[in-house]
Amino acid sequence: MPKQLYRSFQALLLLGMCIFLGSKLASGQLTYYINQRFVPLTIFGIIFLAVLAQTLFTEIKRARQHVQEHDHDHNHDHAPASVNLWFMFVPLLIGVLIPARPLDSSAFATKGFNTNSPLVSADSSAQLFETDAEERNILDWLKLFNYESDVSQFYGQKASVIGFVYFDKALNKNQFLVSRFVISCCAADAFALGMAVDWDQAATLKQDSWVLVKGTVNSVTLNGQVVPLIEAESVQAVPAPEQPYLFP
Fold first, then answer.
1. Cα–Cα distance between 144 and 241 in angstroms, integer?
2. Any idea what the CATH number is for the domain that residue 233 is in?
3. Which domain holds residue 33?
4. pLDDT value of residue 206
5. For position 156, what pLDDT does the model report?
6. What is the pLDDT, as a whole number, of residue 119?
7. Contact 133, 153 (CB under 8 A)
8. What residues are paired with 226 via a beta bridge?
9. 12, 88 in Cβ contact below 8 A?
10. How far apart are CA 118 and CA 98, in angstroms?
């Protein structure tokens, strides 16, 4: 492949990647892929890609002018192997063709599922005591139950959490897990956390539907471990939140 043509494809791919990441940032879908703390770094990356693309376009323009001024062509100059372009094209193509959507229960088999909170330190639970019970999310409740030796102190407290419905075989017919995926770095390391819910109308819910669960906190033993249980007073269908993931 002539060097000038190679540079043209390279510049277009860099520009395409810049536009793709920029569109995900603008639509709020970027955090479907990465932890929100990496968004500033990604913005820097978008700017860097744009600068690189502009530099290549400028180089191509100068090369064409040079060819015209000297009335001969240097396009026979050797370029890097064209296979290198595929390493940029394939990820971009996958990102464009596969719609961005949050993970759901279909990912449990590969991502894993937990009823505890293994990604946080024990001292972080102390801050949660100062948080109003109804403002705690699923991850917060699991932190408390995972690191506090006496969980009975949480019995009777009010909980109000949002998550998607998952029916686990370890629970009875009137119970389900209200779940969220947790991302530490990116979607590749995501795993689901679930908080058990006891509700007499659980059978009317659909798997993966998003719900707001309100009730009082108790506990249940799953796989030999004491985990939080919400004795639901109400379970209300809600739209999926703009940010479906939780971040430790």
1. 24
2. 2.40.50
3. 3-97
4. 95
5. 95
6. 52
7. no
8. 221
9. no
10. 31
**178 phi and psi angles, rounded to 5 deg:** -95, 120
- Residue 157 is encoded by which pair of tokens? 């407290």
Do residues 171 and 115 both lie within one domain? yes
Domain match, 110 and 214 both? yes
What's the pLDDT score for residue 160?
96
Nearby residues of 229 by Cβ (< 8 Å), 6 or more positions away: 175, 195, 196, 197, 198, 217, 218, 219, 220
Q: Please, are residues 141 and 161 in contact by the beta-carbon 8 Å criterion?
A: yes
- State how far the Cα of 9 lies from the Cα of 6, in Å rounded to an integer: 5
Residues 6 or more apart whose CB falls under 8 angstroms from that of 118 comprise 146
Amino acid 202: pLDDT:
94
Q: Do residues 208 and 156 share a domain? A: yes
117/63 same-domain check: no
Q: Which tokens sit at 161?
A: 């959490």
pLDDT, mean of each 10-residue run, the chain (248 residues) = 81 92 89 85 92 89 74 56 80 84 76 63 60 89 86 94 92 92 83 92 94 96 88 95 86
- Residue reference for tokens 């860097």: 48
Same domain, 61 and 109: no
Q: What is the pTM of this model?
A: 0.73
Tally the domains of the chain: 2
How many CA atoms does the CB half-sphere of 44 hold within 13 Å? 5
Name residues whose C-beta falls within 8 Å of residue 31's C-beta, 6 or more positions apart in sequence. 39, 183, 243, 245
Q: Which of 40, 62, 97 is a domain's end point?
A: 97
Structural domain includes residue 243: no
Query: H helices within the chain, ranges in order?
Result: 3-27, 39-70, 83-97, 108-111, 125-128, 138-147
Domain boundary among 41, 64, 97: 97
